[in-house]
Write a structure and sequence with these properties.
Structural class of chain B: alpha/beta
Radius of gyration of chain B: 26 Å
Structural class of chain A: alpha/beta
Largest interface: A-B, 50 and 41 residues
Shape of chain A: globular
Helix content of chain B: 25-40%
Order of helices and strands of chain B: HEHHEHEEEHEHEHEEEHEHHE
Shape of chain B: elongated
Distance between the termini of chain A: 84 Å
Largest sheet of chain A: 10 strands, mixed
Oligomer: heterodimer
Number of helices of chain B: 10
Largest sheet of chain B: 10 strands, mixed
Strand content of chain B: 15-25%
């Protein structure tokens, strides 16, 4: 190698080294890479609309009691909220007590551990028009009506009239509870069912209609519920497991958790705070 | 020292200097393309300016175009960061999509301080600004005509108001137009029968802020989402974004970024 060639090689190496040194170091993800809460004083809650009112009141209460904290609430489907929690764009997720299969897999694949805390019991009642003489149905009859196998009220001791089946959006918590506890894995909602909004339930219930609604809605809209297997939904029957169509509504956080997340979750469970709000909303507290 | 060694050293030194000079003279340009909601694109201006100052080699372009189009463009890889005025919808969502909440804003409904009416429902607001409710008596007030004021320009609070209250429609032709937030305050303060709207940052004590759906407008009720005329903004990233895109989102969420947004009258979320 001639000196001239050695020098040009050295020059090239130096230029390369300087160039590399001047490059920006690779930054990690926008949120710190592990989806950890960015700020010790702020927390973002996303979740099921069913828990929206509870979360909003709780957030305001928490912020007044802990000046300097920022607790934001955004409602979206429970599924979407859990996904946001797993990938790190939310700090708490609210939803039902079962994690969908594909999100279990996502949390495994991303190495994110989740912790669930049950907040209240969500009972779903079966409702009919106030003039309907049918006052009780068995779980089996309910299942058969909603899957279309029973189509006339006379088959269940009512008048000779076709049953009009109403249902709610498949993204709602009431639908999820109803599907799991009543239809089970071997039955599907009849395609003849009409979808109505939660708030339009009362006006949608014609004389021969049947629907289902969360316990708090039934109370709020004064809907006529039937007993299921002879059991009516009360705080007692929902708490002790006698009433069959029940699920827990829960709050999820990542593990290891932050102090703020633990404090907010504790607030959901506190009898004087979250649990009191649960009662006010017409639901059954866990505490 | 031999002449040839001296020559070699001299050559190496000048090559070193040349290499150093080259890396400063022709820096690699990296473009960051942000697009989406027009209001958020405007709000981000001071954040972008500061970000540019800290990253002189980056070129940041920020364009409107709408939230929905931005989500599509983001997933196609056509843009780096999406500016969103809402959470992505369930059908738009995807495990590779990350939507980070960055700030909130809100619209205040304002009436004259002497007006006994202090709360209105969303439906009443829609009806008033659509010309369907014309007397204060219809909403529990005095027997006097409602005089509705609206912002002239099709931007800023008038667009937010239209989206949040009128379902995207314009107010009816009988509204009185004002040119600015200040003019809105002056008009409503001077008109006992006036009603108008202001973005959060323009609210002053010269006018009375009405409750909407029974909820008063405050930082807490906007952060919780209970106040109905509040909006949440997000920045979206997709799949494997560039380090610059990650850094931009991180900066917007940092103490400095949040302070810049708060200075514009928005609510910081961190």
């Amino acid at each position: 190698m001639t000196p001239a060639r050695a020098v040009s090689l050295a020059g090239f190496a130096v230029a390369l080294a300087l160039g590399l040194a001047a490059m920006r170091p690779l930054s990690s993800r926008a949120d710190g890479g592990e989806g950890s809460a960015w700020s010790a004083s702020s927390l973002e809650i996303r979740g099921s609309g069913a828990m929206g009112q509870l979360a909003r009141s709780l957030a305001e209460q928490f912020m007044s009691e802990h000046p300097g904290t920022t607790v934001t609430v955004q409602t979206c489907g429970g599924h979407q909220a859990l996904k946001a929690l797993i990938i790190g764009t939310a700090d708490l997720a609210m939803g039902t007590d079962e994690i969908p299969e594909e999100l279990e897999k996502l949390s495994r694949d991303t190495g994110v551990k989740l912790k669930r805390t049950d907040v209240y019991r969500d009972a779903v009642e079966v409702v009919v028009h106030p003039t309907n003489p049918v006052r009780n149905l068995s779980s089996r009859q309910i299942r058969d009506i909603f899957r279309g196998a029973i189509s006339n009220w006379k088959e269940v001791g009512g008048p000779d009239a076709p049953i009009e089946v109403l249902t709610v959006s498949s993204t709602s918590a009431a639908y999820e509870v109803f599907k799991r506890r009543v239809l089970g894995s071997d039955a599907v909602m009849t395609p003849r069912a009409t979808v109505v909004g939660h708030r339009q339930m009362k006006e949608s219930l014609g004389p021969f209609a049947i629907a289902y609604a969360g316990m708090s809605q039934v109370g709020r809209q004064q809907l006529q519920a039937v007993t299921v297997d002879g059991i009516g939904a009360t705080a007692q029957t929902v708490s002790n497991g006698q009433y069959p169509i029940v699920r827990h509504m829960s709050v999820y956080q990542r593990e290891p958790s932050t102090a703020l997340a633990d404090q907010v979750v504790a607030s959901f469970l506190a009898p004087a705070q979250g649990q009191k709000l649960v009662l006010q909303a017409g639901n059954v507290p866990v505490n | 020292m031999r002449a040839r060694t001296a020559q070699a050293i001299g050559l190496m030194l000048s090559l070193l200097l040349a290499a150093a000079a080259c890396s400063k003279a022709a820096p690699p340009q990296e473009t960051l393309l942000i697009a989406g909601n027009a209001a958020l694109a405007r709000y981000l201006a001071p954040v972008i300016k500061e970000f540019q100052a800290r990253h002189p080699r980056a070129s940041v372009v920020c364009e409107p175009g709408g939230t929905t189009a931005a989500v599509i463009a983001l997933k196609r890889g056509a843009i780096d960061v999406a500016a969103l005025s809402r959470l992505v919808a369930a059908e738009e969502d995807d495990p590779s999509l990350r939507d980070y909440q960055v700030c909130r804003d809100g619209i205040a409904i304002v009436v004259n301080p002497k007006n006994p009416v202090s709360e209105l429902s969303l439906k009443q607001l829609d009806d008033i600004f659509s010309g369907d409710l014309t007397s204060w008596k219809q909403v529990g007030g005095a027997d006097a005509p409602i005089v509705a004021y609206s912002r002239e320009k099709a931007g800023g609070s008038s667009r937010s108001f239209s989206e949040m209250v009128l379902g995207g429609d314009d107010p009816f032709s009988g509204v009185k137009k004002v040119a600015s937030g200040k003019a809105m305050i002056a008009a409503v303060a001077a008109d006992p029968n006036g009603i108008g709207y202001l973005s959060l940052r323009r609210v002053s004590t010269e006018v009375k802020v009405a409750k909407v759906e029974g909820v008063e407008m405050s930082r807490l009720t906007m952060l919780s989402g209970r106040y109905p005329l509040s909006r949440t903004f997000y920045l979206g990233l997709y799949s494997k974004p560039s380090p610059l895109a990650e850094e931009f989102v991180r900066f917007t969420l940092s103490k400095e970024g949040q302070a810049l947004l708060a200075e514009e009258g928005l609510l910081s979320v961190r």
